[in-house]
Amino acid sequence: MKRFLLSGLLMALSLQGTAQQQPANRPTLVAGIPVNYQEDSVGSYVLPDLLKCADGQPVTNARTWTQKRRPELLKLIEEIQFGKMPPRPTEMSFRVFDQGTPAFQGKAIRKQVTVYFTRDTSDYKMNLVIYLPKAIKQPAPLLMNISFSAYNQIIDDPGLLVGSIWNREGKKVRSDKPSNFGKMNVDQFLEAGIGFVTVYYGDIEPDFKEGIRYGIRGKYIKSGQTEPAPTEWGAISAWAWGLSRAMDYFETDKQIDSKRIALQGASRLGKAVLWAGIHDTRFKLVIASISGEGGAALSRRNFGETIKHITDSTRYQYQFATNYHTYGDKVTSLPIDGHTLVALMAPRPLLLQTGSTDYWSDPRGEFLSAVAAAPVYKLFGESGPQPTDTPSANDTSLLLNHLGYFMHEGGHTVLPTDWPHLIAYMKKYL
Ligand code: GCU
């Protein structure tokens, strides 16, 4: 089963070619549950009212949102969907084992850092590689990417540590082979005056059901518990937690402007960066790529993946709080939806990147989510998509909003041609 899940993901994300080469992401039966792709079978739905507090008070200004409504919704997302995460560990430490080596023909200064989550340095740690643009003399803004691969697999730089990754059989192996996920072109960020950092998600928590035995969540299991309580963290919260620990490091590094960190991740990691950005307001900006169900897409809209699909015991249950599993058959009673996640980023910049043939992830559902969240951005005087907008593939008219939306022509991936758009967004808002 594990092999099956991961190979599906590889198929979807590894094709980093042109839009024309991208297959449509449109499975029709998943975990024995049919999938709807007909707009006229979506059904009608009413989204939870973002602008009304639990006690009925209307939210008419930014202050009421920030002080009252936002904390209410944040708690719901935390306890129902992703699960609560522990605070920063007191015993955490950092080892900068590469303190600043020229890289990319002198265009960058490279650092490599191990973040130890516990006092015992033999386990529970993640490696970061950081490239700072040489041309920048003051502390640099950064794009923090969370990746399906170890960094030496996706960056062409001979000085990189060969780390370890989880293979398809759930075993830890050396990351000494190229990954199927394609390469990251670091130059494009450096040229834009933005530093780049990436982390392998499996360093924080492995991406399979039994991963809790090996990942950081297992470390926090209390005696007598076999799994986290229904309101406690699933794997997505663990990945988000790891991103906050990277931020803890950035705050100590004088060459980094920790007030200008953007987060980016795709797919399940698109969900993770969205949640990390919401939960940890130290992050300035988020780019959530193809985050789909459980991310920015609307769960009440029956199109593509549903909560029932994603929380099926043969699929991605372990990524969410156990509470979330109970909503597969009662989505209408969920007090939150994808628009809640989008709104909780306000007023900080958020860009949703989708793909026109990624039907499974429902790119239109992400757009409608942003439309529903735009009134929250408006409380702060910031813009987002309007109900009268109609996004089309490769249209950039909704990109450079505070709450931005961009849909490439193609499937479930981040295309090389997307990056210039994502960089334009960061140049404007970071
Ligand atoms: C599956 C899953 C999606 C997820 C995706 C991914 O397709 O159903 O919800 O986003 O994997 O992470 O690639």
UniProtKB/TrEMBL annotation:
Organism classification:
Bacteria, Pseudomonadati, Bacteroidota, Cytophagia, Cytophagales
Q: Which InterPro entries match?
A: AB_hydrolase_fold (IPR029058), GCE-like_dom (IPR054579)
Q: Which interval of the chain is the signal sequence? A: 1-19
Q: Which protein is depicted? A: Acetylxylan esterase
Q: Which organism is it from?
A: Spirosoma aureum
The molecular function GO annotations come to:
carboxylic ester hydrolase activity
Superkingdom to which the source organism belongs: Bacteria
- Has the keyword Hydrolase been applied to this entry? yes
Instruction: Identify the residues that the record assigns to the 4-O-methyl-glucuronoyl methylesterase-like domain, covering every copy.
Output: 231-381
- Which UniProt keyword terms apply here? Hydrolase, Serine esterase, Signal
Which residue windows are transmembrane per the record?
none
Q: Does the keyword Hydrolase apply?
A: yes
